[in-house]
Amino acid sequence: DTAVSQTPKYLVTQMGNDKSIKCEQNLGHDTMYWYKQDSKKFLKIMFSYNNKELIINETVPNRFSPKSPDKAHLNLHINSLELGDSAVYFCASSQEGTYNEQFFGPGTRLTVL
Amino acid sequence: DAKTTQPTSMDCAEGRAANLPCNHSTISGNEYVYWYRQIHSQGPQYIIHGLKNNETNEMASLIITEDRKSSTLILPHATLRDTAVYYCIVRDVSSGSARQLTFGSGTQLTVLP
């Protein structure tokens, strides 16, 4: 009965490859997010998305794109992977509203060689 | 631009209260104070939030000063499982971009046996 799940948990790949990370939430939430946590442990928002609006952090390269097949899923596609993309990526979800507590997934550790 | 200042690290004896301070001297009237924590190798977890009144839930208490420029998260009886990085976040929930949490560097709380 995991609330927010991500696959894969670990992803090791070569520079230049294209990869995807999947996220699913079974909480019935209408908003989902992707965060990146780098080697210095700083957590930064990348995207927030609901069926009305996609908000992109302006520092995110356009090689990163979120894709939402339905309300319960928000996948992260990364093209032409670079060494600096190595990080832990967290998906989260919340219900739109004034006090929307966010629920986070377990994270995907991406290593680019 | 996390808008908050927290000590880098703190220790607490198991069974004692852990008091984690946070300064947010530039907080505006629309901004709430949120606390999240991140246990090693896990996703962040919501703890509590408040606007100006003190709040308590099953996990913790939140004390906000009258001028709202600082707050303290209190874990009344810390256990070893409370060892984590604790993030204090101020957030204006009235706008779309407010969905996005802006994490600072947080406080590493270590509960000692």
Describe this protein with a few key phrases.
heterodimer, A: 113 residues, mainly beta, seven-stranded mixed β-sheet, four-stranded antiparallel β-sheet, 11 strands, B: 113 residues, five-stranded mixed β-sheet
What is the strand and helix layout of this fold?
The complex is a heterodimer of chains A (113) and B (113).
Chain A: E1 4-7, E2 10-13, E3 19-25, E4 31-37, E5 43-50, E6 54-56, E7 64-67, E8 75-78, E9 87-94, E10 103-104, E11 108-112
Chain B: E1 9-13, E2 18-23, E3 31-38, E4 45-50, E5 55-56, E6 61-64, E7 70-75, E8 84-92, E9 107-112
Parallel strand pairs in B: 1-9
Antiparallel strand pairs in B: 2-7, 3-4, 3-8, 5-6, 6-7, 8-9
In short:
The complex is a heterodimer of chains A (113) and B (113). By secondary structure, chain A is mainly beta. Chain A has no helices and eleven strands.
How would you classify the helix and strand content of chain B by structural class? mainly beta
The string of secondary-structure elements of chain B, in order, is EEEEEEEEE
Poorly predicted segments of chain A? none
**What fraction of residues of chain A sit in β-strands?**
over 45%
Shape of chain B: globular
Helix content of chain B: under 10%
Which structural class fits the helix and strand makeup of chain A? mainly beta
Poorly predicted runs of chain B are: none
Q: Radius of gyration of chain A over alpha carbons?
A: 13 Å
> Roughly what is the average pLDDT of chain B, rounded to an integer?
92
> How many strands, what sense, and barrel or not for the largest sheet of chain B?
5 strands, mixed
Query: Most extensive interface, residues per chain?
Result: A-B, 27 and 21 residues
Largest sheet of chain A: 7 strands, mixed
- What is the distance, rounded to the nearest whole angstrom, between the alpha carbons of the first and last residues of chain B? 35 Å
Q: For the residues shown, what is the average pLDDT of chain A? A: 91
Listing every helix as H and every strand as E from the N terminus to the C terminus, the arrangement of chain A reads EEEEEEEEEEE
- Roughly what percent helix of chain A? under 10%
Distance between the termini of chain A: 34 Å
Strand share of the residues of chain B? over 45%
